[in-house]
Amino acid sequence: FTTKDQVKSNLINYILTNKGERLFNPTFGGDLRASLFNPDSSFDGIAASLEQEIYAYVPNIIIRNIAVKKFSDENIVNIVLDYSINNQDDNLVINVSTNDLIKQ
Length: 104
Prior knowledge:
Blueprint (H helix, E strand, L loop, with lengths): L2 H14 L15 H5 L6 H15 L4 E10 L4 E10 L2 E10 L3 E3 L1
Antiparallel strand pairs: 1-2, 2-3, 3-4
């Protein structure tokens, strides 16, 4: 793995892990499923929460933008994370549907 690949893998792991799912580290995880399917959650709040928590667990990146959008006709939520590591820009796209998780 390159550093860039490892950071992307760490981000995917963090975002798709639910809080309480990791043994001996119950606060680790983006808790995405709980947030997305909670009617009181806003997409702006989810993006802000992810940004704040990612810096705590993956401090060596610079987050450029996090966008959380819902495709109303397909029951899919799209998360786009633009970030920089060692002056190299990269992005991560995760699509969450009611049936499964799809990452790109």
